Automatic annotation (TrEMBL):
The lineage of its organism: Bacteria, Pseudomonadati, Pseudomonadota, Betaproteobacteria, Burkholderiales. It comes from the Bacteria. InterPro entries: Acyl_CoA_acyltransferase. SUPFAM superfamilies: Acyl-CoA N-acyltransferases (Nat) (SSF55729). Gene3D superfamilies: 3.40.630.30. This is N-acetyltransferase domain-containing protein.
Amino acid sequence: MLHNLTLTETLHAQFPVDAALLTHGWEVGRLVMAPEFRSGPEFLKQCLSLALIFLCDNAQVENLHASCSHVLSRLYRRFGFSVLAKEIPLPGTEKTYTVIHGHISQVSNALAPQSPIGQPISYRA
């Protein structure tokens, strides 16, 4: 974040974003897969978990950002994200996006496997 390279950064320019949410911020990019490999939210959860482990092993991470459709923003809430802004237009197009954010602790807890008593299991020993 803060390099004006991503779609989400372009959308951030259109509404106020608390600077604290940008500290050690990373954008969660697009996940594209053929329809025959799509198997629902649990598969997305596994992909996000693997990406988060890799990112945390290789960079300092505090905040995660993304832009998506309103429908997908509801799915991402399951994974610890919350909506920062809705219906943000992409300049020069007819498209609008929902911009979401998740603090690393919230996203990690939401993605972590659950123990039999419902407590998150840590990624690391």
